[in-house]
Write a structure and sequence with these properties.
Blueprint lengths: L11 E6 L9 E6 H5 L3 E7 L5 H13 L1 H6 L4 E6 L3 H11 L5 E5 L4 H6 L2 E4 L5 E4 L2 E6 L2 E7 L10 H9 L1
Parallel strand pairs: 3-4, 4-5
Antiparallel strand pairs: 1-2, 1-5, 3-8, 6-7, 8-9
């Protein structure tokens, strides 16, 4: 499992863009994790799935709400990573009104989840291999704090916890 002091995995996530700009075309665009994290402080949180109850009601809204506070604490970008395709993450971004605040990054094949060692097997629930629920503060591609939730819990990966760590 990834730990404090480790570099983010060298994988590519996908991000759906509805508008053209900054070298991104409309539609899914690749995001090379290590390149995208270089020289930045990132509040990254991962969750089991788009449109799931806890994720939609609490997890994503908390980061959208704390956007300005996180920026003031030195966070350059907020990333939400989930084992879904880029089109689902794009639709979820619209639903959650994350535009300009939280980058909704698709880990369609679970490569990021597997590389971090933070997978969650939800096969029995018909969801397959997903990401565990967690958050991490990343500086220049290196993990400086990691908050992994116990199964079925939402206690340590919330925006307020990561904000406190960013202010640290």
């Amino acid at each position: 499992m990834i730990k404090v002091g480790d570099q983010l995995p060298d994988v590519t996530l996908m991000e759906y863009s509805e508008v053209e700009g900054n070298g991104c075309s409309i539609g899914p665009n690749p995001v090379k994790v290590r390149d995208a994290a270089k020289g930045k402080t990132i509040a990254l949180f991962a969750l089991p799935g788009a449109f799931t109850p806890t994720c939609s009601a609490k997890h994503v809204p908390g980061y959208v709400e704390k956007f300005n506070d996180l920026k003031a604490a030195g966070v350059d970008e907020i990333w939400c990573v989930s084992v879904n395709d880029a089109f689902v993450m794009g639709a979820w971004a619209r639903d959650q009104k994350t535009n300009g605040k939280v980058r909704m990054l698709a880990d369609g094949s679970g490569d990021f989840a597997k590389a971090t060692g933070l997978t969650l097997d939800l096969t029995a629930r018909g969801m397959g291999l997903r990401s565990n629920r967690y958050s991490m503060l990343v500086k220049d591609g290196k993990v400086v704090s990691l908050n992994v939730e116990a199964p079925g819990k939402f206690e340590v990966s919330d925006a307020q916890t990561l904000l406190a760590q960013a202010k640290g």
